[in-house]
Amino acid sequence: MKTITCETCGSQNDSKKYFCSKCGRFLLAGDFVAAGVSSEAELKLTRIAENLKENPHTDILWNDTIDAYTRKVERIQSLLRIKDVGIDASDLSEKINQFLNMCRKPDFEIAFVGAVKAGKSTLINALLGRNYASTDPNPETAVLTKFRSSEQDYIKVKFYSVKEWDELWKSVTREVNRIISSYKKINVPNAFENYLNLPVESFISKYRKEDRMKIEELYMELDSNKFLQLYKELDAKSHMKEWIGKDDLHKQMQNSEIEEELKVWSSSHSNVHFFVKEIEVGISSLSKDFPKQVVFVDTPGLFDPVAFRSQISIDYIHSANAVLVCVKAEDLHGEEVKTVESVFSFSGHKRNKVFVIATNWDKLNNVVIDWDKRYNYMINSFTGKAFFPTRAMAQSNILYAASYHYNLCRDYNSLRSAKKNEINILLMKIQTAIEDCQDRNVPVPESMKALTDAQLGALSPSDLKRMMEITNIQVVNNVIVTELVNQYAELLYSDIKNLYRDIQHMVGRIVGERKKTVNDRITISHSDMKEIEKKVEETKQNRDEIQKVQKQLTAALASLNRSTQQRLETIISKLG
Q1: What is the mean pLDDT of the chain?
Q2: pLDDT digits (tens, 9 = 90+) for 443-494
Q3: How far apart are the C-alpha atoms of 542 and 550, rounded to whole Å?
Q4: pLDDT score recorded for residue 402
Q5: For the chain, how big is the Rg over CA atoms in Å?
Q6: In angstroms, how far is the first alpha carbon of the chain from the final one?
Q7: β-bridge pairing 354-359 and 294-298
Q8: CA distances (Å), 342 to each of 20, 113, 229, 386, in order?
Q9: 237 secondary structure, DSSP code
């Protein structure tokens, strides 16, 4: 291969190149007579080369291959930041940020997602062995919370920035405006502000008497939005400046204090929870074998009344290394199916790491027959191109859980009698289901048969153990440990490689598109040049034709003048 030496930096370049690949200088300046013909392009390429040369790199110490990947991606990111490059690729930038964050902070995040009240927090508590996550029945406990193993118990609280809060509030305002605009026949100026600041009677009295029935209806519809209702009820507006934009708060504590401390920041009864963006909880009581890089993420509901908070869940589905989507076993229609569809649509190539957990199994009428029907329904519904690719994967990745009763059995000795009675009610349901199955000749799991003769009342340790076994929490835990936790390093490496390939593909597509655009412009330029040359030639031909005609006309005029002069002389001679 012939090469050409750059006179500026001395590097060798392919002779077919016009600019130095190292410093961006023009290589063929001596071949062009016109000075400055390459100056604009040279300036841009030199700036790009200098930017890449000075591009900072964060060393990835945990894996040399990933470090090499990171260096390449950082250079691409640096290119995207240069305005002269002229690339508008927001999707690529987002993918690059996700890749670099994953490499620099190699957490293996398992996201628990689902609609509000789907039992995500209760399941996490069952898996963690203690009631850390808030299980407030009010769905507005909507703070993203991360749980990880730690030597020291702690809570770290992140608050919304001013910009983030403005975005959240805009999403709230859009929903309010949608509601208000549906009342087209009444005039309600400042309705949102008045709703937040006035009790119902004062709100209604603000507007015309003849519209007050509709005004009251509007107020009730606004009040049905739990976010708005609580925001007003807790007078959160007056506390906003105290928390928005506040620095992260980090508190170390005893393990036994975590539950109460979490309530301060995430409970719907606390006005501060509106302004908390994220909470991280470090837990010292987890198994010593539980990797510190594995993180359980309790996300806000997918269909939260505030669109901004729903988007947080969607973003975590995109970025999480694995997803446990919780749906209510007793209601596998409508919103629950929509939840599963949403998760799969956002999960990309990670479908083998999506697990569908049917919570509230204990609320089914017959926990054997009804679950068997729902299990088969879910396998049939969630196998296919848009879901699990194979039936076998669907069978292994669809599980049931009765987290609430598992936690009751776990904490049995500290329960009040009313809570203990709830366990007895489930035991009665199970024994009734066993009898029903026997009457119908339906097989009953051996673990459940063992409870046939269990005595209601004060349950024995062995019966409690069996009750905990049939809640299926241990099975779910084993799947998480076997399929995810024990393989987290390998799975994380695989996810990073897949992200890198995605970036390569996107860069290749963008380069291809840019190359096509440039080639199209060159083609058009060549076409334009040929058209110009054609017109010049036509003009030249036209000029020559005009000159020829002009000469002919001049000759004709001269001949006419001579003829006219001769006639005139003849006439004059005759007259004389």
Answers
A1: 85
A2: 999 889 888 888 888 889 999 999 999 999 999 999 999 988 888 888 888 8
A3: 12
A4: 95
A5: 38
A6: 97
A7: unpaired
A8: 48, 10, 28, 10
A9: G
Alpha helix stretches (DSSP H) within 244-288:
258-266
> Which structure tokens are listed for 407?
């936690």
Model pLDDT for residues 309-337, shown as the tens digit of each residue: 888 878 878 888 899 999 998 887 777 78
pTM of the prediction? 0.75
**111 — phi, psi (to 5°)?**
-90, 130
Q: Which two tokens stand for residue 325?
A: 């989507």
Collect all residues with Cβ–Cβ distance below 8 Å to 493 and sequence separation of at least 6: 63, 66
Domain ranges of the chain: 1-43, 55-106+485-515, 167-237, 403-471
pLDDT of residue 140: 44
228-272 confidence digits (pLDDT tens):
888 999 999 999 999 999 999 999 999 999 999 998 898 888 899
Report which secondary-structure segment, H or E, holds 520: helix 488-575
Beta strands of 254-391 (E only): which ranges?
276-283, 294-298, 322-328, 354-359
Condensed to tens digits (0 to 9), the pLDDT of residues 342-371 reads 888 877 768 889 999 999 999 999 999 999
Query: The sheet that has 154-159: what strands, in order across it?
Result: 249-252, 154-159, 276-283, 144-149, 294-298, 108-114, 322-328, 354-359, 398-400
**With bands split at pLDDT 50, 70 and 90, how would you rate the model's confidence at 51?**
low
Question: CA 540, 541, 547: angle at the middle one, nearest 5?
Answer: 90
Round to whole Å and give the CA distance between 545 and 4.
50
CB under 8 Å to 441, separation ≥6 — which residues? none
Give the closest residue to 113 by CA, choosing from 312, 407, 403: 312
In 3-state terms the chain splits into helix, strand, coil percentages (rounded to 5) of 60, 10, 30
Contact 51, 40 (CB under 8 A): no
For the chain, the maximum distance between any two Cα atoms, rounded to a whole number of angstroms, is 161
Location of structure tokens 């029907």: 373
Q: What is the C-alpha to C-alpha distance for residues 172 and 516, in angstroms, rounded to an integer?
A: 44
> What's the chain's length in residues?
576
Q: What letter represents residue 533's amino acid?
A: E
